[in-house]
Design goal:
globular, binds flavin-adenine dinucleotide, 5-stranded parallel beta sheet, 2 domains, FAD/NAD(P)-binding domain, 377 residues, alpha/beta, 9 helices
């Protein structure tokens, strides 16, 4: 790439990986470059602390990163906008309500959305994304049904999605409601299309989670693929129903619609197709990081830990592409520590073949999470 006096590095979506660029830029900006951050919300939410915030273990501000001060400290421009496309020839990011933003190098980090959500938009359904507004939206829905459902009857809550996020949300919401509305009865059901829970976790951990859910009276309905949503129930493909006053949509990560508008190659799963260098397979000076990129040669699950491990690779490759040097490859780790917040001051920790459910696991998770977010706050 030819050196010019000022080139534009643009970050589209400030999630786990792109936020790290801002952090580096503050200390050591790339010479002769401007940095622009595009964001739909004034804050970024750290998903690792969302369940704890729901459980009342953290104040909402503790899981949030205010982007204006972070950008200001880095000397970056902040564009509040919902990007809706790219002009690959002119190298600009397009918006519906904002002038195009030019880039020489672009890093797309717009995350993912819960699968199927767009088909089932209904006032009785609260999707887990955008995470920035989730706690407020769930509080509003609970408030509405609290007024509408007879006091003698329990409020029926269904969490759609039996992955780790769905389980954490079920257990942590239960803890929240026990404090916020102690006088009310609630019933909790976890509905999953598959035959098992917490895919990706070992059998011993899954068995522990099943015991925890049973002890906390969270019913599990497997093989329940939601195909219709009504005000008072969810219906499955085979016509079964679950009574529901409030459904939370927390299914696995799927590609957000904006990715289809970028005119870049997509992987089979609908996310942007990238090489191990995180660069689009189309060869443009565009990276896709975190959930929104799929390395076609070695796809890995969508999780924040991968997004975080991509940070040093992205930072190196931004320099390298601007200086015409070889790009570095990212290799996803095979195994990583998983810690699920179970809402009552404990967490379930899985590392290699070990699995524990204890208070110290929550202390460890809280220490890791607070340490992670502190550098951006
Ligand atoms: C409840 C829950 C708990 C989780 N817990 C864990 C955990 O403990 N450990 C773990 O490894 N993973 C966890 N995950 C998964 C993790 O959240 C994701 O893998 C991670 O957030 C991906 O990071 P990202 O940077 O790709 O996207 P995100 O963190 O989602 O950031 C993307 C950002 O882009 C913005 N954006 C989106 N579209 C646009 C647009 N068009 N224009 C401008 N900005 C846009 C969004 O508003 C958002 O701020 C959890 C997920 C959930 C839902």
């Amino acid at each position: 790439m030819q050196a010019t006096t000022s080139r534009h590095v643009v970050l589209l979506g400030i999630g786990h990986t792109n936020a790290h660029v801002l952090w580096h830029w503050q200390r050591n900006p790339i010479p002769n470059c401007t940095l622009t951050c595009i964001t739909r919300f004034p804050t970024s939410t750290y998903s690792g602390m969302l369940p704890g915030t729901l459980a009342g273990q953290y104040a909402p501000a503790q899981m949030e990163v205010a982007l204006a001060p972070l950008a200001q400290a880095a000397g970056a421009a902040l564009v509040a906008g919902n990007a809706c496309g790219l002009d690959l020839e002119r190298r600009t990011v397009q918006f519906e309500n904002h002038p195009p933003v030019p880039y020489d190098v672009l890093s797309v980090g717009v995350g993912s959305m819960p699968a199927g959500w767009l088909h089932y938009q209904h006032p009785a359904v609260v999707p887990i994304k955008p995470m920035q507004t989730f706690v407020d939206r769930i509080d509003q829905r609970i408030q509405a049904v609290n007024g509408a459902v007879e006091r003698a009857k329990p409020i029926r809550i269904v969490i759609v999605g039996g992955g780790v996020a769905g389980i954490e949300v079920a257990l942590c919401l239960q803890a929240r409601l026990a404090t916020h509305l102690p006088e009310r009865q609630f019933s909790f059901t976890l509905a999953t299309a598959s035959d098992s829970l917490a895919s990706g976790m070992r059998t011993a951990s899954v068995a522990k989670l099943q015991r925890i859910l049973a002890d906390r009276q969270v019913k599990v309905r497997s093989h329940f693929e939601v195909t219709a949503v009504q005000e008072s129930y969810l219906e499955s493909r085979d016509g079964q129903r679950i009574a529901s006053d409030c459904a939370i949509w927390a299914t696995h990560a799927s590609a957000p619609p904006v990715l289809q508008k970028l005119r870049l190659p997509l992987a089979e799963d609908g996310f942007l197709a990238i090489d191990p260098t995180l660069q689009t397979t189309a060869g443009h000076p565009i990276f896709a990081v975190g959930d929104c990129g799929t390395i076609v040669q070695q796809p890995h699950p969508k999780a924040g830990v991968f997004a975080v491990r991509q940070c040093p690779i992205l930072w190196h490759n931004l320099h390298a592409i601007l200086e015409d040097r070889p790009l570095r490859k990212y290799h996803a780790q095979r195994d990583f520590m998983k810690i699920l917040n179970t809402g009552e001051g404990k967490a379930l920790l899985e590392y290699k073949r070990f699995s524990f459910h204890a208070h110290w696991c929550w202390l460890l998770k809280s220490w890791i999470d607070r340490g992670f977010i502190k550098r951006y706050q």
